Q: What sequence folds into this?
């Protein structure tokens, strides 16, 4: 998570290069895959996007000759599908191309460079980062090491529907395209207006979303009405199977999986029950006194492993777990940790924020969090240890106890 040193101008050098090289050539062997990439890029309506399935079997084909024929010698970048490694490696060895300047793999371009390209070339705001919206803090489980810190939330509730709609509206008023947007909890299927919430997003903003999804823990079987909406809009189900170590969950999980398969719904889970929680909180060590440089290094390694943002109170939080920690009153709200969508700002500042820039280079919650597995090897050996139903854990930030577990 880099610290802002030239806010609003962090990407000027690369962005100005893209302005001069704004045409896109999609190169590879698979016409269907290239068409898919072109569709994903269609919101950048000021760039010419061309597809070539020319087989680059030899450097003798001279990419320069191809550029001249296409009239793109000096104003193009090339994107190659992730699967087409052979084509990418041949092009990488061309004297006219430089990796991550005018030659990109699909994954690298979309995750690291498309946001910069879209802003400087077309004044568009694109987010490569998945952003979640919590619909409810109620859950059917009470996992001790829940990454949304459910056991610490004393007043669990369903979020006001109009408040959620207000957050959705302001979010999509600022973005032209987002890679992934999800509804989370708690357990989202407990939310009484989940159907209405998903329909509102789909009917108003589905063209701005690469993938819309929600997570579920297998305790509630989808009803037919909701299943039809999921099917119609190809909504992604992130299915987490916790049934291995929770006996009462086995039957409902089985029925959930059967329903998803029967209705042929889009699901990213393999349905594996080999799940463990890593122990992100409470802190095993006292990280509060680490210097800024060390905090930045920890945060970067953590976010290199996983980067997910959260939408709440018209603000985008740079870490969904930091947002959940605030909801659970584990840490106070710190303005450096979020981007306020209600304030006046330049679009490029939001682009930089969504690419990881922040005021401090780390978050306040980093002082109390063990982090992701990239910096934290500790796991819940029981898989998903359950606390007694209704049990709430205590935490005092002014007098923290660092538990050796």
A:
């Amino acid at each position: 998570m880099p610290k802002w040193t030239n806010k609003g101008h962090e990407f000027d050098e690369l962005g100005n290069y893209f302005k001069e090289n704004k045409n896109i050539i999609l190169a590879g062997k698979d016409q269907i895959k290239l068409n898919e990439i072109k569709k994903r890029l269609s919101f950048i309506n000021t760039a010419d996007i061309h597809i070539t399935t020319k087989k680059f079997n030899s450097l003798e084909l001279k990419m320069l000759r191809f550029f001249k024929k296409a009239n793109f010698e000096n104003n193009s970048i090339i994107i190659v599908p992730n699967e087409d490694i052979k084509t990418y490696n041949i092009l990488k060895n061309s004297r006219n191309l430089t990796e991550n300047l005018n030659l990109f793999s699909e994954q690298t371009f979309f995750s690291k460079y498309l946001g910069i390209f879209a802003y400087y070339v077309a004044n568009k705001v694109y987010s490569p980062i998945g952003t979640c919206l919590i619909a409810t803090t109620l859950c059917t489980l009470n996992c001790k090491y829940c990454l949304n810190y459910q056991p610490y939330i004393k007043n669990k509730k369903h979020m006001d529907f109009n408040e959620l709609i207000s957050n959705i509206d302001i979010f999509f008023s600022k973005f032209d395209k987002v890679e992934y947007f999800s509804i989370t909890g708690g357990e989202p299927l407990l939310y009484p207006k989940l159907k209405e919430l998903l329909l509102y997003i789909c009917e108003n903003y589905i063209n701005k979303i690469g993938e819309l999804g929600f997570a579920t823990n297998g305790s509630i079987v989808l009803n037919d009405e909701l299943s039809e909406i999921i099917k119609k809009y190809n909504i992604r189900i992130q299915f987490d199977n916790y049934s291995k170590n929770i006996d009462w969950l086995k039957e409902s999980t089985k029925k959930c999986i059967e329903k998803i398969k029967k209705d042929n719904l889009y699901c990213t889970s393999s349905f594996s029950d080999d799940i463990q929680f890593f122990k992100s909180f409470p802190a095993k060590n006292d990280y509060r006194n680490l210097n800024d440089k060390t905090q930045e290094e920890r945060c970067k390694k953590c976010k290199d492993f996983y980067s997910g943002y959260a939408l709440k109170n018209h603000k985008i939080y740079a870490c969904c777990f930091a947002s959940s920690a605030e909801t659970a009153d584990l840490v106070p709200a710190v303005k450096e940790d979020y981007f306020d969508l209600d304030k006046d700002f330049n679009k490029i500042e939001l682009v930089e924020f969504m690419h990881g820039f922040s005021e401090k280079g780390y978050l306040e919650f980093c002082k109390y969090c063990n982090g992701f597995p990239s910096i934290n090897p500790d796991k819940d050996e029981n898989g998903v240890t359950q606390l007694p139903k209704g049990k709430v854990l205590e935490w005092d930030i002014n007098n923290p106890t660092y538990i050796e577990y």
Observations:
- The longest helix spans residues 106-122.
- The two ends are 29 Å apart (CA to CA).
- Residues 126-368 form a domain with the TIM Barrel fold (CATH 3.20.20.70).
- The chain is about 30% helix and 15% strand.
